[in-house]
Amino acid sequence: MLVIGEKINSSRKEIYEAILSRNESFLRQLAKTQTEAGADYIDVNAGAFLEDEEALLVWLVQIVQQEIDRPLCLDSPNPKAIEKAIQVHKGIPLINSISLEENRYRSMISLVKESGSKVVGLCMGDGGIPKTGDERIAVAENLISRLTGDGVPLDHVFLDPLVQPLAVDCTNGRTGLNVIRQIRTLHPEIHIICGLSNLSHGLPSRKFINRVFLQMAVASGLDAAILDPLDRVLMTSLQTANLLMGEDEFCLKYIQAHRGGKFEGLS
Predict the structure, then answer these.
(1) Residue 267: pLDDT over 90
(2) What CA–CA distances, in Å, run from 225 to 25, 53, 156, 160, 161?
(3) Which of 16, 19, 32, 239 is in the most buried spot, having the most CB atoms within 10 Å?
(4) Per-residue pLDDT tens over the stretch 119-153
(5) What is the pLDDT of residues 46-86, one digit of tens each?
(6) 41 - beta bridge partners?
(7) Mean pLDDT in residue range 11-29
(8) What's the Cα-to-Cα distance from 164 to each of 132, 136, 175, 221, rounded to whole Å?
């Protein structure tokens, strides 16, 4: 299970203020603590700064990768910002994101191909986010076909079924799980990712929703998530879910987590 740390996102007030004031030490420490908590990638987003996004995304990439030895998830719909961020990124980044929206696809696909980056593919097109699970499956099929047809390796594709908030429709969790399950059945080799906190948006006690849904999603075939790695219960739940799904040979990672004190103080 691939974990992308979600915390360095300019839509969050404290991150916006830290970027605005160029608080490097705060942002570096946040990247470090997410990595130490188990993040494989760190998401970086400067989208709240519309006019300065390009320069600020480059700045974020540079200061974060000076602190940690991890690839980053470059989070922007702006192809110019992505292009400039790729130029300073060390290693192979994950671009978030591309979709079947024609203008977005055309502007992003050349960047993905030329850089050899991995890419998040959103299950949506020019008509917006499909309302039904079957419609999202159809978009997923088209997106896979188009990306691979354009030369993107299958193991570089991370499909996002776009799990929607429960506060809008209480069936959105079930729909999201069904889409994950069907994509996994149709394409066992593809990566499936989601922004975990989208589901709980607008509801109280969001951590409880996120924790339970993550376990259900892993059981349905999810193998990557953008989430809060500083939530210890969430991370130990993920560790346990991986164990139960047979993804932890000889239970070694679970045992190592226990010995490393990851479960201490939790009940």
Answers:
(1) no
(2) 26, 24, 15, 9, 12
(3) 19
(4) 999 999 999 999 999 999 999 999 999 999 999 99
(5) 999 999 999 999 999 999 999 999 999 999 999 999 999 99
(6) 4
(7) 98
(8) 11, 12, 9, 18
CA-to-CA separations, 104 to 4, 95, 125, in angstroms, rounded? 23, 13, 9
Check pLDDT > 90 for residue 166.
Answer: yes
**How is residue 128 annotated by DSSP?**
B
- Token pair recorded at residue 260: 């490393």
**Do 217 and 210 touch, CB atoms closer than 8 A?**
no
C-alpha 113/C-alpha 93 separation (Å) is: 12
Q: For residues 100 and 91, what is the distance between their CA atoms, to the nearest angstrom?
A: 26
β-strand partners of 158: 120, 191
Token output for 133: 């699970």
Distance CA 193, CA 83 (A): 22
Count other Cβ atoms within 10 Å, centred on residue 64: 24
Q: Which superfamily is assigned to 107-226 in CATH?
A: Dihydropteroate synthase-like (3.20.20.20)
Q: Name the residue ranges covered by the structural domains of the chain.
A: 1-91, 107-226, 231-267
To the nearest 10 degrees (0 to 180), the angle between helices 102-115 and 79-88 is 10
pTM of full prediction above 0.85:
yes
Looking up tokens 């998530």, which residue turns up? 225
Q: Which residues of 132-164 are buried (b: 16+ CB within 10 A; e: fewer)?
A: ebebbbebbeebbeebeeeebeeebbbbbbbbb
Contacts of 52 (CB under 8 A, 6+ apart): 46
Residue 164: pLDDT band by 50, 70, 90 thresholds?
very high
